[in-house]
Design brief:
Strand content: 5-15%
Number of domains: 3
CATH class of the largest domain: Alpha Beta
Structural class: alpha/beta
Radius of gyration: 29 Å
Number of helices: 19
Distance between the termini: 42 Å
CATH superfamily of the largest domain: P-loop containing nucleotide triphosphate hydrolases
Helix content: 40-55%
C-alpha cells in the first residue's frame, strides 16, 4: 500500500486532504510541522511527501532539503496559497516532483498523486527487470592486481573456442567470470546455456545434458533436447562440474573429443558445436587422486585454467564492492544507505570465508535491519568483528621488512576506505603529502 506523509499546519486543510486521500485506500500520515515530518521520515519510508511551503518553524523548502538528503527516492509535492512562478521554479530546482497552488481541486491532487505512484511503479519494475538482466551481465568488480589479472586472462581467452576451467572457493564469482567470457566471445549473440550439476539428481543428469527420446523411461512422454543441443553454436556452462558421476564423465569426454552425442533411448548421433566452460569449487586434482574424477577429462577441461581469488586476498576491493551492493540495496529500500568509517574498518578486518557472496549477504541484512541510513558496526553480525580481531592476533613469523610492508599497505587501505577513496583527505589523515601517497600506492599496487 502506498504510504503518504502530509505536512500541513492548517488543521482544517490537513484533515480535509487526509480524509480525501484515505478514501483512495492509501496509507496517509498527517503532521502539523516540518520537525514532526522529519521524525516520521526517520521512523518509516514514504512513497510521497505532500507539504505546505510556508509553515512556522521549519518551512517547506527546508523540509524539502531534508527529505532529499535523507530519502532521495521519495517524491515530493509542494503546495502553497502564496504561489508564484519564482516559487515553483525554486521548488523544482531543489528537487520537488510537483507543485500545486491553493485552493486546489481534490480530484486534481488525486490525479497528480496517482500519476506519481504509477511512475514509481514503472521505475521499480524497470529496476527489477534491469537487475534480472544484469544477473548474467554483471561485471567483475574490483581493481586489485588479482582482479586485473582475471580481466586480462578473460580478454585473452574469450575470442577463442578453448575450454576454460574456472576454479575458486564458493562465492568468489565463478559464474560472473563465465558470463564475462561468453559476452566477449565470438558466440556472444548465440545461445548461452547454464546448468548446475550439483542441483540435478544423478538419475536425471544424463537426460538434462543429452536429452531423451519419447518412451526412453517412465515419464518420458515426448522427445526432449538436452542442454548440449540447446547450446549448439553457442556456449554451455557446466557449473560444479566436479559433481558429475563417473559414468557421465565418459560421455562428456566423448563430446569434447568427437563433438557428438546421443539422446537417452536414441540411436541417432547428434553433431553439436559448443564452446564449453566449466566451474567448480572442488580441487579436481584431489578428486582425481581419490578416483572420483577422470584424469583424461580433467586434461581436456583444463585447457585454460582460470582461478578466482578469494576476497581475503584482495581486501582493497572491499570498499568498492560494498558501495556497489549498498547502491543496489538503496534502490530496493528507497533510502540512500552508507557505511560508517567504523563499519568499513570492521569489514576490512574480516576474512570472509564465504567471499563476495558473504559480503553481499552481510550488507543486505544490514540494509534491512539498520534503523538509520548510515550502517554502523552495531548493525553488522556480532561475530564479524570478533573473528576479524582474532585473525589479526594470529600471525606467522615473517621478516621485519615484510611485516612493515604489510602494515604500511594496510594503513593505506584503511585511510582510503575511511575517506571514500579521496586521496587528498587520505594523505592528510596519514600525515604525508599527496605525492608521497601516490608513490606508496604505486609501490603497493593499490589502484582506485
Amino acid at each position: 500500500m502506498p504510504a503518504i506523509l502530509l505536512v500541513e499546519d492548517d488543521e482544517i486543510m490537513r484533515i480535509t486532504v487526509q480524509d480525501r486521500l484515505l478514501r483512495q485506500r492509501w496509507q496517509v500520515d498527517a503532521v502539523a510541522g516540518g520537525q514532526e515530518a522529519v521524525e516520521r521520515l526517520e521512523q518509516q519510508n514514504y512513497h510521497l511527501v505532500i507539504s505546505d511551503i510556508r509553515m512556522p518553524g521549519m518551512d517547506g523548502l527546508e523540509l524539502l532539503d531534508r527529505v532529499r538528503s535523507h530519502s532521495p527516492f521519495t517524491d515530493i509535492i509542494m503546495m502553497t496559497a502564496y504561489g508564484s512562478v519564482e516559487d515553483a521554479i525554486d521548488c523544482l530546482k531543489k528537487g520537488a516532483t510537483d507543485y500545486i497552488l491553493k485552493p486546489f481541486d481534490m480530484d486534481d491532487l488525486v490525479i497528480r498523486i496517482t500519476r506519481i505512484l504509477e511512475i514509481q511503479s514503472v521505475r521499480a519494475r524497470c529496476a527489477s527487470l534491469e537487475e534480472s538482466c544484469l544477473q548474467t551481465q554483471q561485471a567483475i568488480i574490483g581493481t586489485s592486481p588479482q582482479i586485473r589479472q582475471v580481466h586480462t586472462l578473460i580478454s585473452q581467452v574469450a575470442p577463442t573456442d578453448s575450454t576454460v576451467l574456472i576454479t575458486g572457493e564458493s562465492g568468489t564469482g565463478k559464474e560472473l567470470a563465465a558470463s564475462a567470457i561468453q559476452r566477449a566471445s565470438r558466440r556472444a549473440d548465440k545461445p548461452y546455456i547454464r546448468i548446475n550439476c550439483a542441483a540435478i539428481p544423478e538419475g536425471l543428469m544424463e537426460s538434462e545434458l543429452f536429452g531423451h527420446e519419447k518412451g526412453a523411461f517412465t515419464g518420458a512422454h515426448a522427445r526432449k533436447p538436452g542442454r548440449f543441443e540447446m547450446a549448439d553454436g553457442g556456449t554451455l556452462l557446466l557449473d560444479e562440474v566436479g559433481e558429475l558421476p563417473l559414468g557421465l564423465q565418459a560421455k562428456l569426454l566423448r563430446i569434447l573429443q568427437e563433438g557428438e552425442c546421443e539422446r537417452v533411448g536414441g540411436t541417432m548421433t547428434i553433431k553439436v558445436d559448443v564452446r564449453l566452460l566449466c566451474a567448480t569449487a572442488r580441487d579436481l586434482d584431489e578428486e582425481v587422486r581419490a578416483g572420483r574424477f577422470r584424469q583424461d577429462l580433467l586434461y581436456r577441461l583444463q585447457v585454460i585454467p582460470l582461478t578466482m581469488p578469494p576476497l581475503r586476498e584482495r581486501k582493497e576491493d572491499i570498499p568498492v564492492l560494498s558501495n556497489h551492493f549498498l547502491h543496489e540495496f538503496s534502490l530496493r529500500r528507497g533510502t540512500a544507505l552508507t557505511l560508517s568509517a567504523e563499519a568499513m574498518q570492521s569489514l576490512m578486518r574480516y576474512d570472509f570465508p564465504g567471499n563476495v557472496r558473504e559480503l553481499k549477504n552481510i550488507l543486505e541484512r544490514a540494509s534491512v535491519l539498520a534503523p538509520e541510513p548510515v550502517i554502523t558496526p552495531a548493525d553488522l553480525p556480532a561475530d564479524l568483528q570478533q573473528q576479524g580481531i582474532a585473525t589479526e592476533e594470529v600471525s606467522e613469523p615473517v621478516m621485519l621488512s615484510e611485516a612493515l610492508a604489510r602494515t604500511e599497505r594496510k594503513c593505506l587501505l584503511n585511510a582510503l576506505a575511511l575517506t571514500g577513496g579521496n586521496r587528498t583527505r587520505a594523505a592528510s589523515l596519514l600525515g604525508i603529502s599527496r605525492k608521497n601517497l601516490w608513490e606508496k600506492m604505486k609501490l603497493h599496487e593499490i589502484t582506485l
